[in-house]
Amino acid sequence: MLTDDLYCNPRVREFDEPFKLSLTDIDFVPFGTGDILQDAERRLGIIVASDVETTSCSPVISTSELTRIRNNVVSNYNSLRNNYSNVGSSLDSSGVVAQYSGVFDAMEGGNYCYRQSDQHLIDDIKVCADGANQVLQNAFNQFASNFSARISPIRSASQELQAAASSATNSVEPTLNAYKRLWANNFQFHLHNGVNGVLDNLISEYKIIMEGSNTLFEQGTNRVQVNFEAEVRQSNIVFGAFGRALDYWSNQDGATGYGMYVDNIRMYQDSLNKISGFTVLASDLNKQIFAEIDLHIAEIKKQFAAFPNFVQAIPTTGFILDPNTSALKFYSRQAVLNLAEAAGSHFTSQIAPGKSLIGTGFSYQHGGKMPPHKEHKDGKDCDIFSEYFKVGASTYDETKSVQMATYLLENKVTRLIYTNASVVAAANAACPANAVAIIGARHETHMHFDLDTATALSNG
Ligand SMILES: [Zn+2]
User: How many whole angstroms from 132 Cα to the centroid of ligand 1?
Assistant: First the structure.
């Protein structure tokens, strides 16, 4: 059934926060302390191998002093080589760079004026310098290889994020998953740049990916959000139509207005189904949107439950339904139908044997304005016609009219409207305990009676 669908509240899947990371949230260690390698080469380049003649340069460094420097350089180099000939899976270059610098610091400037006989000491220092450069190169090749392995899953997540962000329509899930995976694979490093070109390029790529990920996240989720809000706007437009249907029901035509309302439920349900097809972020705005939809649904259920559902009248002995009146207009409360039937039975047995009362209108099944009547909205009104009630016609019979009117007063109608003043007076006089007959215009062909709600209920 139509309304049962509405009881299944639409609920799109929402993601709980925190769902978004930022570069500032991670321990991202900046890199770059200058071009170590270049510095080292410069220092080596200015070592001056002096002539044996001590006068060509001065002051001449003593053998013992040069030996001390050479031993210190060798010691530092051995330490570098022993500690960093293999950096393993490390992504921290601070140790090897410090140790590497230590080798060159031990050269104490590297600009010597020395004796030719000390050439072997200078050669040792050169060997250490070359070795230190080699250790540094090897270490940074390994750092580049390590970094390459770590950035690989980030790169593929970034590609997926890019694809998801540019094609998202009604689900943030692919964007969110790629974004989460990207950041889940994030890693810390402390590496110097300017040493290894491959590593420098990888670090640049890393920065571009991580800094761009938030933009892609926004792009993908915004695409979904725009579509989602458009659908919500559409559902709000449909929701507005319920009020117009109710207004039509109340003031124009109850049957048509009720039909409009039911049709609109179908349209609203379609709209809710579309909204349910979305997966959006659990933002404050979206939570507010869902709360509003819940309120709308509750309002619709309440309105719909408030429509009456009256009983259909059926012809009985002495009471028939006017074939010239729309069948839609023969619905009412059971007590009103019972009284109409009883009146018909009384009419054919006691007032006009062989004749029937003709019902010319009760209410619509679901109430509402029933043109051309001003009343007949709420299942308490009934119009009955007979040729004997037709004032001014040759068939008019005042006695029968008084008998009918009196019967209705005796049976506790809460109001009786008829055009003929003398009939109204006679009926009220005959039933002083319930003298509710009144004179009304445009009731010269039929009698109109009401049973108000309280009376209808007490009459069963
Ligand atoms: Zn009426």
Answer: 112
- Find the mean pLDDT for residues 78-96: 93
Distance from residue 375's CA to the centre of ligand 1 (Å): 7
Tell me, what's the pLDDT at 457? 53
Mean pLDDT, the chain, rounded, equals 85
DSSP string, 324-379: TS-GGG-EE-HHHHHHHHHHHHHIIIIISTT--EEEEE-B-TT-S--TT-SS-SSS
Which is nearest to 69 in space by CA: 111, 131, 117, 132?
A: 111
Place of tokens 């410090």: 98
- Ligand 1 centre to CA of 363 (Å) is 10
CA 411–ligand 1 middle distance (angstroms): 18
For position 149, what pLDDT does the model report? Answer: 97
> What is the spatial distance between Cα 186 and Cα 178, in angstroms, rounded to a whole number?
13
CA angle (446 as vertex; 444, 447 as ends), nearest 5:
105
With 60 as the cut, is the pLDDT of residue 44 above it?
no
- Going from the C-alpha of 321 to that of each of 311, 330, 396, 456, the distances in angstroms are 14, 8, 21, 21
Q: What is the pTM of this model?
A: 0.75
Strands (E), 205-313: 279-281, 311-312
Helices vs. strands in the chain: H and E counts, helices first = 13, 10
How many Å lie between the centroid of ligand 1 and the Cα of residue 262? 28
Q: How far is the CA of 380 from the centre of ligand 1 (A)?
A: 10
90 contacts 39 by C-beta, under 8 angstroms: no
Q: From the CA of 429, how far away is ligand 1's center (Å)? A: 23
Question: From ligand 1's centre to the CA of 360, what distance in Å?
Answer: 8
Q: Mean pLDDT throughout 354-380?
A: 93
Looking at residues 104-122, what average pLDDT do you find? 81
Question: Could you tell me the distance, in angstroms and rounded to a whole number, from the CA of residue 447 to the centre of ligand 1?
Answer: 7
Percent share of the chain, pLDDT over 70: 85
Q: How far is the CA of 381 from the centre of ligand 1 (A)?
A: 6
* 356: alpha, beta or left? (left if phi > 0; alpha if psi -120 to 50): beta
373 CA → ligand 1 middle, Å: 7
So what's the pLDDT on residue 58? Answer: 62
Distance 31 CA to ligand 1 centre (A): 92
Q: How far apart (Å, rounded) are the C-alpha atoms in residues 67 and 39? A: 24
Eight-class DSSP state of 386: -
**The pLDDT of residue 155 is above 70:** yes
CATH code reported for the domain at 311-458: 3.30.1380.10
CA of 452 to the centre of ligand 1 (A): 14
